[in-house]
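User: I'm curious whether this sequence folds into something compact or stays loose and floppy. Could you predict its structure so I can see for myself?
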Amino acid sequence: MSVLLILIVSYLLGSIPSALIVGKVGYGVDVREHGSGNLGGTNTFRALGKKAGIIVILADLLKGTLAALLPLIAGVDLNPLVAGLPAVIGHCYPVFAGFRGGKAVATSGGVLLAYDPLMVALLLLLFFIVLYLTKYVSLSSILTGLAAHTYGIFDGDKVLSLATFALALLVLYRHRANVERILNGTESKIKWL
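Assistant: Here's the prediction. I'll summarize afterward.
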């Protein structure tokens, strides 16, 4: 398998619209017609409930991990982060769902999981602390993306630093409307049980 083929397969893996599949197959619902209209875990949680949301987040995470592991599977000398980035782009702009996808968080986490599981464990801890304190999923996602980049800088791994920079920018860009709503005080908060 060539590097180009790995990048294409990675994008196609990322383009698998987990939320759309879970919604339509399991519930007869197109999640794009509910809530934020995006094909991600948070909107699935809000539109379809916990079980569907967890399935979507895990599927989105796993497609990022699988994409990052493609070089290892194929025996190709390519950094897993480079291999995984097209999956994140595919998740945000999926060819299989009219280029209307999610916000890059879970799939980015999956790519990073394949590269540095300890970093992902620390990022998850941060995500849930911020979520508990603020009740904003979007703010938790943005701050976790920035923390990933900070980790990449201090780790001294140039590829990790560049990849986390790109991922953090993408997460921030995909959450730009959420940032505006946070500033306006109209962003939805989660409700704890």
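Summary: The radius of gyration is 16 Å. DSSP finds ten helices and no strands in the chain.
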